[in-house]
Amino acid sequence: MIPKPLVSLVIGTRPEAIKLAPIIIEFRKSNEINLRVILTGQHKEMVLQVLNLFDIQADLDLEIMKKFQSLTYITSSILESLENEFSKFKPNLVIVQGDTTSALAAALAAYYQKIPIAHVEAGLRTNNLYYPFPEEANRKIISQITSLNFAPTQISADNLLASNTAGKILITGNTVVDALIIMSEKIKFLKNDYLNNLNKSFILCTIHRRENWGMNLDNIIEGIIRILDKHPDISILIPMHKNDIVRDPFLENFKSISRVILTEPLSYAELVFYLKDCIFVLTDSGGLQEEAPTFGKPVLVLRDNTERPEGIEAGTSKLIGTCPDGIFQEVNNLLTNSEIYRKMSTAINPYGDGTASVKIVEECKKFLLN
Q1: CA geometry: angle at 358 spanning 353 and 360, to 5°?
Q2: Does residue 136 carry a catalytic annotation?
Q3: Which tens digit of pLDDT belongs to each residue from 221-259?
């Protein structure tokens, strides 16, 4: 009897878990493929929260997490651990998602053992090697060693073609939309104490990117304070990153302001709940640029550049930078100009219709079984 092909999926961070969960679910509908779900252990608590929500159990945790870990440590630890893993359980295909250092290291580990790689959410580009850092370099490197490139949009596919990518390119949409649809069905009502302190109209705000550490973060905070002064009926929900470089400035500036609700990182279920309930999103996150349009929520992006230009072109998102004056002006416009808000909130989500995971799994099956 011919053994079933083995597919290993490597998950490092919460966004990776969210975007790979629908693919795992879709694979498990079939009995033609064996799966192995591997965690690097970087964002262990947050990743496990997500997997539990989707009823997914990991087969292995590399447990590489340590305090003040460097990019070099993350890369070398994953490479060494996966060398052992792939020697014991050699997959026929390794699936990675996005542009994290864990995705890069997993792809390299597979490449070094001549194992084919499938890259979910391939082709995102800013064409600035240090913005975002290290993600832009990570995703460019992964694309050069990948057999299957699953591009979320035509723009991403064009980026891959322009970089002379050798692997096959397929436009699938983004699996984050699949995950949102699955989760919104699971969550009909979520009880949470934060609701007691939030005004009816609240902004969901997330900030964590390395390029916004330091002076940029100080500028963002100044812009937020000016908005709060101008609009006494608005509150802001800020789930804080675990990194003290980001947390401490928020705590120092907002701990005594009742209309700013500072929380620990939200579970994915909570994030979906508040995303559906907020008026719009203020963020430097990449994922929220894809997620918010599913619920008709405008996104103001606290960056000067984005690897997700589809949202900018579609009108679901707008780049506003980190200057306090610019932040104040753009947030104020959304709060006071109903036509601007209407156009952004009704723009069509360019990131897909919830069928990306089906397309990806079917293509993987063709690759493995034909």
Answers
A1: 105
A2: no
A3: 999 999 999 999 999 999 988 777 888 888 999 988 889
**Active-site residue flag, 226:** no
Selecting among 135, 136, 178, 330, the annotated active-site residue is: 135
Query: What pLDDT, on a 0 to 100 scale, did the predictor assign at position 189?
Result: 57
Active-site position among 99, 270, 284, 291: 99
**Which entry of 241, 259, 277, 304 is annotated as an active-site residue?**
241
Note if 363 is an active site residue.
no
* 6 has pLDDT over 90: yes
241 as an active site residue: the answer is yes
Q: Which of 121, 136, 307, 330 is catalytic?
A: 121
Rounded CA gap, 118 and 235, in Å? 42
* CA end-to-end distance (rounded Å), the chain: 17
Whether pLDDT at 34 is above 90: yes
| Structure tokens that stand for 137 in this block | 């370099």
Which one of 36, 80, 210, 211 is the catalytic residue?
Answer: 210
- Please pick, among 208, 209, 231, 308, the residue that the annotation labels catalytic: 208
Tokens encoding 229: 């002064």
- Whether 208 is a known active-site residue: answer yes
Q: Give all domains of the chain, ordered by start, each with its CATH number.
A: 6-173+355-369 (3.40.50.2000), 194-346 (3.40.50.2000)
| Cα–Cα distance for residue pair 59/290, rounded to 1 Å | 29
303 is catalytic: no
Where would I find the H helices in the chain?
Answer: 14-27, 44-53, 71-88, 101-112, 135-144, 154-162, 175-186, 194-197, 215-230, 244-254, 268-277, 287-291, 309-314, 324-336, 338-346, 356-369
54 closest CA partner among 212, 242, 251, 187:
187
